[in-house]
Amino acid sequence: MSRRLPHAPLGSLSCIALVVACTIDAAPPQPTPAPACPRHDASRQGAPPPRNPVTVVHVAPGTSAPLQLAVHACAGLRNRALGGSVYVDADAHDTPWITDLALSPTATVEADAFVRACVAAFPACVRYDYGAQRPLLPNILTVAAALGAVPVDASLDVTCGSTAFDAVAALRERNTPELATRYVFEQYAAQTTGLAMLNPGYDTGPTNPAAPALTRDMGPALVDFVFSQKLFVVFLVNGCTEGHPERTLLSNIVNANRWPTPLGVYGYNNSWNVAGGYLHEAQTRCLDSRNMGAIASETSNLSFFATRAAPITESNVVTQNALEAVTYDPSRTYVAFVVGDGDNIAYITSTRRDWFRQRVAACEAGAPCPPLTWTISPHLTRVAPDLLRWYYDQSHRTGHDYFTLPPSGHLYAYPSSLADAAQDRFVAATEEDACVLGLAGTVHWDWAGTWRDAEGVFLPKYATRGGAIRGVFPVNVPYLIPTFTWWPPDHFYEVLTGADGGRVAVFRPREWRGVSNDADIHQLSPQRMADELGGHPRGTVTWVYLTSDGGLTLENSFLALARLLPPHVQLVSTDTAARLALAARAR
Fold this sequence. Notes:
The chain is α/β, with parallel strands linked by helices. It has 18 helices and 22 strands.
């Protein structure tokens, strides 16, 4: 899952995947050209946006929630109108990107001054009462984004030129999330471009998940992107609850043909925390229409990144490192390690940046630098091209870092649970993502009980001649329930063959989530993990998925393990693991 809480058994909340292999002596890596992407219409790209001067808005700790919401809304409006020019520095993870991307700001302003200047430039306001209307904040933000107006609470010391929408008056009789959402959808959905879910402050671990209390302020993450893209924002706690009126409403919204499906839902659905995991965070099984997936993106400054650089397409692709020069040898064992959570753009802007810097520093300091694969959101091509290029640039510094699609390809979803028509569109979108990113693998999550359908029906859709996906790396949700139990114990992968003779390798799941308990296969010490991998039958090709929800870090797992593996265990990238599995099965 995407946001992930510590020790969350409902799928790998907070996941890291590792691909295990020894250091490979080979020629210096050369870029691997991306395959052609015939589906994409390059004419949609248009001219690159101008590189405007950058203003940094500093938001001090303790700034009130209404002021923070206004700052991020204004940043979205400014970036929508002018292109990437306003960057909000409100979090410890915001500041480093100013240096990493060489933004060279020309001005830094404080939050209150920025909002006053913003209201002068965008004089129409949406007036609301933060204290009394907190459950309705998603609806209020939707209206403000659609109208291009600044959301102004009575506590803010700003003077608006006009009131475009008075939420206090308009929603007085529509004072529940269900009633307000229905009204705003009827009146403003035609002016929006997609769907987002943002929690206005409900308790995410309540005793009764059907009726959580409002226990915190609404965070401003993603609000700037909502305003730059005119997204329709909802948060219906019982929008996925069978028989509840909110579910009927959400189904009507999703299936009103406003937006294409399978619908990627921005933000994060952190309602219904069950046994440590959010039951509906992947969205797929929420509605009977089974046509949604998540774009986990509860982070800031996406309006800046999305409007500052042209989208990455097949005409201006990023380039992976050359794959390892490895030929299948039945006397060896091949393992791929994958760093997870790359589906969650909030992780991409924070912890994964820190981990990648650790990895680069270790490699450049002369430590062993075996291949390592990172999951990376395909949506960065549109919402943060500069961040995506930074990751690829860092991978070129080591020469041994690679990328794969995160769960489950184009969206964080459970693909075998999608409606039949949505499955084919999902596969086509995932193939296009793989082409643009220059990779051949995807981590794949499905819900317990659907894996036989996945193996027999869904995953063979990738087994086509000329298709981009050649390796599928599954993780069960919930991950504690074993799957692929019908495979022989010594089978670590199977090769599926499609109708036209194309082939795809599907691997047995293996997760590593912490290093503190050798009695738990998900919490093994590096030495015990090395012993396990070394004990596999020779000729095995397998993988390990690392997730930080059990206390695992890059340093205490992969970096420690690489020195402990026996000589016959060779670490490889996921794309090489898929190639080796296909080669081994062809023998």
